[in-house]
TrEMBL record:
It comes from Mizugakiibacter sediminis. Residues 4-132 form the 1-deoxy-D-xylulose 5-phosphate reductoisomerase N-terminal domain. PANTHER family: 1-DEOXY-D-XYLULOSE 5-PHOSPHATE REDUCTOISOMERASE, 1-DEOXY-D-XYLULOSE 5-PHOSPHATE REDUCTOISOMERASE, CHLOROPLASTIC. This is 1-deoxy-D-xylulose 5-phosphate reductoisomerase. SUPFAM superfamilies: 1-deoxy-D-xylulose-5-phosphate reductoisomerase, C-terminal domain, Glyceraldehyde-3-phosphate dehydrogenase-like, C-terminal domain, NAD(P)-binding Rossmann-fold domains. It catalyses: 2-C-methyl-D-erythritol 4-phosphate + NADP(+) = 1-deoxy-D-xylulose 5-phosphate + NADPH + H(+).
Length: 392
């Protein structure tokens, strides 16, 4: 029986994971659930899954959570705050941690789970982008395993022999990440000037949280995934390509030295990757409809438009710059996306804010989590200053 902690349980990935878990009561037990501020949804999940511990990230809500758990007649214990999250991720209540918090807020608990040798199911790509070298160190020290949940990385993991071998020894020439192109594929810059958060969040193929939906619309999501692929699989930036594939049926590909290209296909439903990661190396039912290839008229592929969707180019640039540049990119992106969602920053300005932030802050080596958090805050302040000056 796997004892699972679902961090970010009230989100889109959390819901998909709990759906898969609920299909296999004899195989998984949910012992830890977390949310940021959504106490009611968390208590409702506690009623369904009866975990030992419920965590609310906002410390001001600990009392409310405890009261509502009690009122619901639940024996689940309540805790709050970022430290409690990291402690639970490393603690004895779980052997498997689903890192499904959105953004840099997921970094500490992701690193804690890795350091404690848990099976880490990584959806929170921002922590790999920010703290790649620290995550790899933590995995080495902890001796646990990381199974990628992001559909592209999960596909690549499935197409590599033994999951994550040294790529050169496995004869791998290239990793090819597929991108849907998001809701604005094919549009010109002029057509993107006035787009709204609602339009940006209306993804054609996937239902996701708002932050990653905007990232998909700017192609920053693919940029973060290029960096994530570099961290997880050790591929150089030149050996990671992106191809736009609007149907989102091919989740990514691995090209070998002999010219073979292996791909993982399936319907666009995160429960497939989550079921794979939860049960690996076994396979379990995920509730996903079979892929009807004959009913799909075509699989199309095209090159990404890096001139219109500057964020993807900026991510490659940050990866090549090295050091903590990816963390700075991620921080500036989070601030700019928040402002766009709040209606105070135009869509096209997201890339401009990130570029200007990277221009002001030369990369520094990644030494430890504390320094990284400090640099993350500096990049956020810089991005806010740039936004105030130029856009707000
Ligand atoms: P959602 O916005 O739907 O959910 C985010 C979850 O994180 C919620 O449980 C939220 O709690 C919690 N949370 C938000 N802020 C904080 C914080 N500061 N501290 C602690 N917890 C917090 O996001 P998604 O499920 O879409 O995405 C989660 C992660 O998975 C992201 O990193 C995303 O990039 C990645 N991912 C998502 C995919 C998808 O299909 N959705 C696909 C591949 C990767 P509350 O409800 O209380 O706000
Ligand atoms: Mg993805």
């Amino acid at each position: 029986m796997r004892r699972v902690a679902v961090l970010g349980a009230t989100g889109s990935i959390g819901a998909s994971a709990l759906d898969v878990i609920a299909r296999h009561p004899g195989r998984f037990r949910v012992d830890v659930l977390s949310a940021h501020r959504n106490v009611d949804a968390l208590v409702e999940l506690c009623g369904r899954f009866r975990p030992e511990l419920a965590l609310i990230a906002d410390p001001a809500l600990e009392g409310t959570l405890a009261r509502k758990l009690k009122a619901a007649g639940l024996r689940t214990e309540a805790a709050a705050g970022a430290d409690a999250l990291a402690e639970a991720a490393a603690g004895p209540l779980c052997d498997t941690v689903l890192a499904a918090i959105v953004g840099a807020a997921g970094m500490a608990s992701t690193l804690a789970a890795a350091r404690a040798g848990k099976r880490l199911l990584l959806a929170n790509k921002e922590s790999a982008v920010m703290a790649g070298p620290l995550l790899l160190d933590a995995l080495r020290v902890g001796g646990g395993e990381l199974i990628p949940v992001d559909s592209e990385h999960n596909a690549i993991f499935q197409c590599l022999p033994g999951g994550r071998p040294p790529l050169a020894r496995a004869g791998v020439r290239r990793l090819i990440l597929t991108a849907s192109g998001g809701p604005f594929r094919g549009r010109t810059r002029a057509e993107l000037a006035g787009v709204t958060p609602e339009q940006a969040c209306a993804h054609p193929n996937w239902r996701m949280g708002r932050k990653i939906s905007v990232d998909s619309a700017t192609l920053m999501n693919k940029g973060l995934e290029v960096i994530e692929a570099h961290v997880l699989f050790g591929a150089s930036p030149d050996a990671i390509d992106v191809v736009v594939h609007p149907q989102s049926l091919v989740h990514s590909l691995v090209e070998y030295a002999d010219g073979s290209v292996l791909a993982e296909l399936g319907n666009p439903d995160m429960r497939t990757a989550l079921a794979h990661a939860l049960a690996w190396p076994e396979r379990i039912e995920a509730g996903v409809a079979p892929l009807d290839l004959a009913a799909r008229a075509q699989l199309a592929f095209e090159r990404p438009d890096l001139e219109t969707f500057r964020c993807l180019a900026l991510a490659y640039q940050a990866l090549r710059a090295g050091g903590d540049a990816p963390a700075l990119l991620n921080a500036a992106n989070e601030v700019a996306v928040d402002a766009f969602l709040a209606g105070t920053l135009p869509f096209l300005a997201i890339a401009e804010v990130i570029e200007a932030t990277l221009g002001e802050l030369p990369p520094a080596p990644v030494v430890d989590a504390e320094t990284l958090i400090h640099r993350d805050l500096t990049a956020r302040d810089t991005a806010r200053r740039i936004m105030r000056r130029a856009f707000c």
